[in-house]
Sequence to fold (175 residues):
Amino acid sequence: MNEVLKAIRERRSVRKFKPDMPAKEDIEEILDAGLYAASGMGRQPVITVAITNKEARDRLSDANRKIGGWPEGFDPFYGAPVIIVVLADKNHPTYKYDGSLVMGNLMLAAHSLGLGSIWIHRAKEEFEMPEYKRFLKDLGIEGEWEGIGHCAVGFIDGEAPKPVKRREGRIYFVE
Fold:
């Protein structure tokens, strides 16, 4: 089986990460894979912000936790040391789809490098908050950006999750 199809079939969402930081080169490879995601008319309206600073990561986790309604102490990023935020320019008609494709590339790239990942929601709500609009502005990011998702990345703590059986009856042909 070819490597891409193998990665697609083997990648799983991970919900328990080791605190160890992946190599910066691996993080850069994952980010680079996101740049090659398909986008409507090739416009590439998506940016990524890799958060490896523990304090910034923990603040974002707490904001996400509050939005999700979880109790204090819960980490919606499951201990992952790297959080890649995917944001898309709201002025492009395909921005949500384009951002989703970037998320897929990021997760497959992480898997191909022996790392775990999971898509965590609520980025939209976070980046509507004044604190996170300011966060982007402090990074020099201007414009109307919508949070698409977080790709939490790190070393899997324990066994990789097993695949669930694929549901039948989801493929149709018109021949």
In short: Residues 95-112 form the longest helix (18 residues).
